[in-house]
Amino acid sequence: MNKTILRVVAVAALASTLSGCFLTKIVSVPMRVVGAVVSIVPVAGNTANDVIQGAANTVDDIPL
């Protein structure tokens, strides 16, 4: 029981030190990777990449 409380406190302390920028990067980096992979598609790849990059930029602009 005591170890569980200590672990919860430790996780809460670590989570509070994370900045909002780091949290948005967790979401936007995979989006950018998918956009890079989709850009390989011959016809619609660049258009889809632009849309995904725009969405990733929007996620990065979220004020946390």
Number of discrete domains: 1
Rg is 18 Å
Task: Specify the helix fraction band.
Answer: over 70%
Mean pLDDT: 82
Let me know the largest β-sheet. Answer: none
Oligomer: single chain
Tell me the structural class: mainly alpha
Regions with little confidence, pLDDT below 50 for 5+ residues: none
Number of DSSP helical runs? 3
Number of strands: 0
Strand fraction: under 5%
The general outline is elongated
What's the order of the H and E elements? HHH
For the termini, the CA-CA separation is 33 Å
Structure report:
The chain has three helices and no strands. With 64 residues, it is an all-alpha fold. The chain has one domain. 6% of the residues are buried.
List the helices and strands and how they pair.
Layout: H1 2-17, H2 20-38, H3 45-60
Helix pairs in contact: 2-3
Considering the chains and any ligands shown, give keywords for the structure:
single chain; 64 residues; mainly alpha; 3 helices; 80% helix
Q: Short description, anyone?
A:
The protein is mainly alpha-helical and 64 residues long. It contains three helices and no strands.
